[in-house]
Design a protein that fits this description.
By secondary structure, the protein is mostly helical. It has one domain: Glycosyltransferase, CATH 1.50.10.10. It is 55% helix and 4% strand. A 4-stranded antiparallel sheet has the order 2-1-6-5. It has a two-stranded antiparallel sheet with strand order 3-4. Strand 5 and strand 6 form a beta hairpin. It starts with a helix and ends with a helix. InterPro entries: Terpenoid_cyclase/PrenylTrfase (IPR008930).
Length: 440
């Protein structure tokens, strides 16, 4: 062999060796499926040390529970307790919750996303996405009754609260940051995360009230929120979503009046230019407002949004559309919707779940509407479940990479990338579907 050929061969071997070490150098996070744990991997620094699995609530976050509150998942302890399709939703939600649990770092924040093709975390971290993930873990704690989720949610909340400042007027304002494109959205989701904690302590409730005061300071006379660059109907929806959770935890006349005035304003906006992006957060927000206040205008707005939303679902059974079936066309403008459904469809499932629950609370429920929402939900949940990395769907990856994928939801049928906020939304959507009664 010539010196040149020998050099080329050695160079190729070196590249292959580097590539292999790049693929297997990462350690799986804790609480992995047994099938992965049995395969083994090198013990190098991980997202979080394997032994750091504390389930004791962080001091000052949650009060000592006087009794165990019944949780959504109490009804789903085994496959025998539900239908096969419902059990698929249960497994998907629980697997996603565990993925969120594993993706939290020691500083309280989460790995923002993952690119399986490069076996690397993605860039583009945003504090609002972190707040959505904290909200999802608090939601998981309340839905399962498991303290380990409470502890991780509390840790994330404390870290995110460090990005705010309390002024002399008692208003907790988000700090200006390049990682915070919308203070309105961040405040709404952080407020909701605190309110969803199981039995939050008084000092944490006080911080939630300070955040609510910030939202109050942005309310305008016409019912809209004062917007900054980066704000839109989606960020306004997040603010309303936080406000309604605050009203449920600590009721106040001004909060209910704010929900009424914003509902009137944004209903007018929806009628003039409906868009899925507005429904994503406002649908479940005003559904919760109806569940609290039992005021007809809230329910009417919810049904108006969700009736329109149902028409955006892919229902075709032809082979070329089969992978899209159950997903929803999404976008900020009905004239410019995405050509294929993405994980944003989780917001549609969340909204429809709450709308179904609202319809069931009426004195005379509309049977046709209930069935329409239920069928849309069943298809929507099926679409979300097909976008989840399961053990079967990751068998071709090395064990260490599988550890970062199993339980996460990827963006769409042609994009395998993961984002923390999208998986968070999918978990909350599937859980609320199970809580709505539509699975029966």
């Amino acid at each position: 062999m010539s010196h040149r050929n020998l050099f080329v061969a050695l160079f190729v071997l070196a590249i292959l060796g580097c590539s292999y070490s790049f693929l297997v150098a990462q350690t799986p996070p804790n609480r992995l499926p047994e099938t992965i744990l049995q395969e083994g991997s090198k013990d190098t620094p991980a997202i979080r040390p394997i032994g750091n699995t504390a389930s004791v609530p962080t001091p000052g976050i949650s009060a000592a529970p006087s009794r165990r509150v019944p949780a959504v998942f109490d009804r789903f302890r085994s496959p025998d307790s539900s239908s096969e399709s419902t059990w698929m939703s249960v497994k998907a939600a629980r697997l996603g919750m565990d993925w969120l649990f594993r993706m939290q770092q020691p500083n309280g924040l989460f790995i923002t996303g993952y690119n399986p093709a490069l076996n690397q975390p993605t860039d583009g971290d945003q504090l609002t996405r972190q707040a959505i993930a904290a909200c999802a873990l608090a939601h998981a704690a309340r839905s399962t009754g498991e303290n380990r989720y409470t502890a991780r949610a509390a840790q994330a909340i404390l870290t995110l609260l460090s990005e705010t400042t309390l002024n002399d007027a008692g208003i907790r304002t988000p700090n200006t940051s390049a990682n915070m494109p919308s203070k309105l959205a961040f405040t709404g989701m952080l407020l909701r995360a605190i309110c969803l904690l199981p039995e939050p302590a008084e000092d944490m409730i006080a911080k939630a009230e300070e955040l609510a005061q910030y939202l109050k300071s942005l309310l305008q006379a016409d019912g809209s929120f004062k917007e900054e660059p980066g704000d839109n109907l989606t960020t306004a929806g997040m603010a309303v979503y936080g406000l309604v959770a605050s009203q449920k935890l600590k009721p106040a006349d001004w909060k209910l009046q704010a929900l009424r005035s914003t509902g009137t304003y944004y209903r007018t906006v929806f009628r003039s230019n409906p868009s899925p992006a507005q429904i994503g957060w406002m649908g479940p927000a005003y559904a919760e407002a109806f569940q609290l206040a039992r005021e007809t205008p809230f329910a009417e707005f919810v049904f108006e949004m969700n009736d329109w939303l149902c028409a955006l679902q892919f229902t075709q059974t032809e082979s070329k559309y089969l992978i899209y079936r159950g997903g929803f066309r999404w976008g900020f403008d009905v004239k410019h919707l995405e050509p294929i459904p993405t994980l944003d469809s989780a917001q549609a499932v969340l909204s429809l779940s709450e709308a179904y629950k609202c319809m069931g609370m009426l004195q005379k429920p509309d049977a046709a509407r209930l069935d329409k929402y239920k069928q849309a939900l069943m298809r929507g949940c099926g679409f979300l479940e097909r976008l989840q990395y399961s053990e079967d769907r990751t068998s071709h990856f090395v064990p260490t990479l599988r550890a970062y994928l199993i339980g996460a939801f990827f963006n769409n049928p042609t994009d395998g990338n993961i984002r923390i906020d999208q998986t968070s939304m999918a978990c909350m959507a599937l859980t609320q579907f199970l809580a709505s009664g539509a699975e029966r």
